[in-house]
């Protein structure tokens, strides 16, 4: 029996070439020091496989048509067996993939593994990074709820800003001149055929290059990269101290990947997929478009930059960002790899991370957005239940002041807090400010009569920062 | 049976005369190009067609004249100029319409001129406000605050036989002359 099995396997092996072609790849020698630092690349690939597996299943029920996509998503989420779990896996898998690809990129950058001879490893990686971001973005649109539809507007509006070719790009993206039926079918194709095709091909090339040049060693401050001697030195070191990838090194990758998949499935099971917004309708204005969390920082940037710089940011961040990253190894392909010798590299990673975190928090808190849901100020905040001050508080609500300004802890945060404005500005100053507006504040001269203006000012003057009679919650 | 065939005949090692090989090389490359072109051209034409389609603008009716109160700004919905049969609600588009006189109307695009988010008309404040990055516009569409670089775009409106009609326009309106 055993001999039979052996014979059968030999027959297969001689034809597919497992022992001859694949085994050497699996057991190729890698540096001994390739430890936990190196698990992010393989984990990104694993997260991609989760996306492929869950995405293929979702595509069996998803209808990429403007009139049915939303309904099919509802079916997947609410009725199909395992549908909610699969959607959740696809959503959390996307987050995991974006996170892991960024961590992998940062690690490779910090350790300068992009230097000779691995420049093309890095360049293919950068293409993959942008393809992953493209997948994340197009995937958000396929949700085809109100948020998805409005995201297309934002995307096309941004693309349309490109000089000369802008309108052509936006027409190409939308498949026409407006967001409509052909927009969704196009985005479906980008998300399901084009970008995954790029990713499959890119991963193939990335791995081929990995095998060709070998896994990079941990940087050593004593070993700057010199293209003249690097390869022979690397070979010699590997021969002396290397270990086979299978099984000596791969177990860490598998352990970490297992943790990643367990986290994705766990989150999907516990938290479920992201809730669907209202059905898509480009004519409905009650949407509050918000991208997925990994793009919040960019959302924040677009709100914060002055209009005159905006074009630079809209086009600069994606295009220049790509070019700088892509061409990086061409400009610094040799020399030191150790972070201790490259303080700028550490500075850039730390600054990027800090910028990302700060802007993401900003993006989440959206202090620049008017808060349309602000309720009328309660008596506990106003302090009185009648008279000019109370009437003024009603006008502050009607005129939208509270959409942007907070009073006593209630209201929006786009403008300054007005809780003690009565102490800061005199009656005349208040009138001038309301009538003429100011930086980022509309002028109300044309839309408020003098009687209502006095009531509003009376209310604002009464805001002297003192604690209201009761706390707002009461 | 090959053993009995005797010594091989005199001929170049790989079977073909040099000029014949050169011809076959060129033929292979040229035909591969033709195969590629035949496969790709129709696809390119199909995919790029929207770029070359002339922009259609259509008058769409949005209601009867008497349905609109003078001075009021209301949201109207209408079908975009080139709806696909499978578009469903996504073939709809909207505008803020204000009756400014007996038969004069002003129609504003609902797309913020900053990045296209849907602006809301806040009646009590007489302002259009954008939920995305805090763009604010006065009732005449001029920018009152926030990042939008230009006033809200306007659609053309006309009244025909007692019916109010809006001339559709392509998005993004920022780059569309209307
Ligand atoms: S899209 Fe309206 S302010 Fe940005």
UniProtKB/TrEMBL annotation, chain A:
Bilayer disposition of the protein: Multi-pass membrane protein
GO biological process, one term: respiratory electron transport chain
Domain spans labelled Cytochrome b/b6 N-terminal region profile: 8-219
Keywords: Electron transport, Heme, Iron, Membrane, Metal-binding, Transmembrane, Transmembrane helix, Transport
GO cellular component, one term: membrane
Main localization category: membrane
Domain of life: Bacteria
The keyword Isomerase is annotated on this UniProt entry: no
Domain Cytochrome b/b6 C-terminal region profile: 235-367
Subcellular location: Membrane
Residue intervals of the Cytochrome c domain: 387-464
InterPro entries: Cyt_b/b6_C, Cyt_b/b6_C_sf, Cyt_b/b6_N, Cyt_c-like_dom, Cyt_c-like_dom_sf, Cytb/b6-like_sf, Di-haem_cyt_TM
SUPFAM superfamilies: a domain/subunit of cytochrome bc1 complex (Ubiquinol-cytochrome c reductase), Cytochrome c, Transmembrane di-heme cytochromes
GO MF, any single term: metal ion binding
Pfam families: Cytochrom_B_C, Cytochrome_B, Cytochrome_CBB3
Positions of transmembrane segments: 36-63, 91-110, 122-142, 188-211, 254-272, 311-332, 344-364
PANTHER family: CYTOCHROME B
Name of the protein described by the UniProt record: Menaquinol-cytochrome c reductase cytochrome b subunit
From TrEMBL, chain B:
Lineage, broadest ranks: Bacteria, Pseudomonadati, Planctomycetota, Planctomycetia, Pirellulales
SUPFAM superfamilies (UniProt xref): ISP domain
InterPro entries given in the database record: Rieske_2Fe-2S, Rieske_2Fe-2S_sf, Rieske_Fe-S_prot, Rieske_Fe-S_prot_C
Domain Rieske as annotated: residue spans: 73-166
A Gene Ontology term for the protein's cellular component: membrane
GO molecular function: 2 iron, 2 sulfur cluster binding; metal ion binding
Gene3D superfamilies for the chain: Rieske [2Fe-2S] iron-sulphur domain
This protein's UniProt keywords: 2Fe-2S, Disulfide bond, Iron, Iron-sulfur, Membrane, Metal-binding, Transmembrane, Transmembrane helix
Name recorded for this polypeptide: Cytochrome b6-f complex iron-sulfur subunit
Organism from which the protein derives: Pirellulimonas nuda
Cofactor(s) needed for function: [2Fe-2S] cluster
Entry's transmembrane regions: 29-52
């Amino acid at each position: 029996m055993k001999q039979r099995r052996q014979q059968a396997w030999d027959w297969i092996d001689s034809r597919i070439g497992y022992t001859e072609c694949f085994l050497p790849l699996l057991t190729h020698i890698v540096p001994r020091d390739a430890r936990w630092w190196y698990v992010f690349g393989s984990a990104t690939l694993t997260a991609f496989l989760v996306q492929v597996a869950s995405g293929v299943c979702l595509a069996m029920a998803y209808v990429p048509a403007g009139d049915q996509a939303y309904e099919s998503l509802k079916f997947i989420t609410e009725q199909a067996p395992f549908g909610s779990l699969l959607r959740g896996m696809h959503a959390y898998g996307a987050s995991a993939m974006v996170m892991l690809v960024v961590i992998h990129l940062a690690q490779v950058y910090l350790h300068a593994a992009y230097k000779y001879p691995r420049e093309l490893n890095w360049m293919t990686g950068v293409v993959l990074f942008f393809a992953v971001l493209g997948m994340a973005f197009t995937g958000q649109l396929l949700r085809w709820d109100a948020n998805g539809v409005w995201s297309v507007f934002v995307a096309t509006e941004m693309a349309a800003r490109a000089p000369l070719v802008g309108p052509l790009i936006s027409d190409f993206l939308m498949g026409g001149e407006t967001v409509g039926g052909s927009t969704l079918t196009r985005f479906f194709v980008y998300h399901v055929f084009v970008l995954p095709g790029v990713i499959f091909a890119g991963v193939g090339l990335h791995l081929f290059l990995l095998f060709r040049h070998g896994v990079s060693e941990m940087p050593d401050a004593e070993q700057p990269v010199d293209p003249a001697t690097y390869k022979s030195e690397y070979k010699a070191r590997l021969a002396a101290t290397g270990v086979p990838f299978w099984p000596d090194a791969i177990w860490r990758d598998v352990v970490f990947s297992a943790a990643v998949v367990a986290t994705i499935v766990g989150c999907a099971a516990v938290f479920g997929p992201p809730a669907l917004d209202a059905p898509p309708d480009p004519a409905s204005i009650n949407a509050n478009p918000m991208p997925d969390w990994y793009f919040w920082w960019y959302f924040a940037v677009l709100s914060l930059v002055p209009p005159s710089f905006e074009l630079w940011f809209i086009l600069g961040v994606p295009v220049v960002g790509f070019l700088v990253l892509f061409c990086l190894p061409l400009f610094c392909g040799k020399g030191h790899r150790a972070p201790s010798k490259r303080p700028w590299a550490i500075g850039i990673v730390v600054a990027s991370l800090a910028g990302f975190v700060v802007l993401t928090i900003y993006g989440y808190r959206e202090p620049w957005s008017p808060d349309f849901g602000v309720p009328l100020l309660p008596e506990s905040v106003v302090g009185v239940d009648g008279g000019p001050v109370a009437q003024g508080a009603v006008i502050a609500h009607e005129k939208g002041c509270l959409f942007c300004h907070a009073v006593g802890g209630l209201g929006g945060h786009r403008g300054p807090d007005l809780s003690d404005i009565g102490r800061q500005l005199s009656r005349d100053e208040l009138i001038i400010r309301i009538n003429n507006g100011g930086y980022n504040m509309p002028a109300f001269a044309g839309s408020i009569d003098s009687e209502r203006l006095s009531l509003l000012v009376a209310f604002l003057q009464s805001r002297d920062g003192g604690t209201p009679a009761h706390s707002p919650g009461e | 049976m090959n053993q009995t065939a005797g010594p091989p005949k005199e001929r170049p090692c790989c079977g073909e005369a040099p000029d014949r090989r050169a011809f076959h090389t060129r033929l292979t490359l040229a035909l591969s190009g033709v195969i590629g072109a035949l496969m790709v051209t129709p696809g390119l034409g199909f995919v790029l067609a929207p770029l070359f389609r002339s922009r259609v603008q259509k008058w769409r009716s949005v209601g009867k004249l008497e349905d609109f109160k003078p001075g009021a700004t209301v949201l109207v919905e209408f079908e975009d100029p080139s709806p696909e049969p499978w578009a469903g609600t996504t073939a709809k588009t909207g505008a803020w319409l204000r009756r400014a006189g007996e038969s004069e109307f002003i129609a504003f695009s609902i797309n913020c001129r900053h990045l296209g988010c849907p602006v809301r008309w806040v009646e009590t404040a007489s302002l259009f406000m954008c939920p995305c990055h805090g763009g604010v516009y006065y009732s005449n569409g001029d920018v009152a605050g926030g990042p939008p670089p230009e006033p809200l775009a306007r659609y053309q409106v006309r009244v025909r036989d007692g019916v109010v009609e809006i001339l559709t326009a392509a998005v993004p309106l920022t780059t569309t002359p209307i």
